[in-house]
Amino acid sequence: MRDPQARKRARSLRRDMTKSETVLWTALKGRALDGWKFRRQHPVGPYIADFACLEAKLIVEVDGATHNSHDEIAHDRQRTDFLESQGFAIVRITNTGIYEDLDGIVRQISAALAPSGPSGHLPRKQGRTSDMISQLSTESELEGAQHSRSNNGRFPT
Question: What is the distance between the alpha carbons of residues 151 and 45, in angstroms, rounded to a whole number?
Fold first, then answer.
């Protein structure tokens, strides 16, 4: 059963995201990263993950300056151990990394995701149909492709 207090706290954290979390969220939201769906401030057991991709079992944690103290390092280790025991992989990034190299951070997150995309298929590229048509080399190939597309390939040409 879900913890109502964790949900309430997560909702509050979503409202009050840090600037670095907001910047990263713009790169992750709306399935912008290879079609993967990320959630922000998502409860997982007693913890709230900064960003979670449930399909890939990946959590992205944004660490600020406070994560350098001995107490915070110990807490982060305990948290990581729990999340990994739940089957999640963890990617830790820093606030400064987001500000200085957002593209590199996004590449790091992308590398931690399965290469084939969330559905097991390669992510769809924009303009794929027009690219295929432009690659056809002769007029007869073009006519054959158009005919096949119009009858969904059910009848021989």
Answer: 51
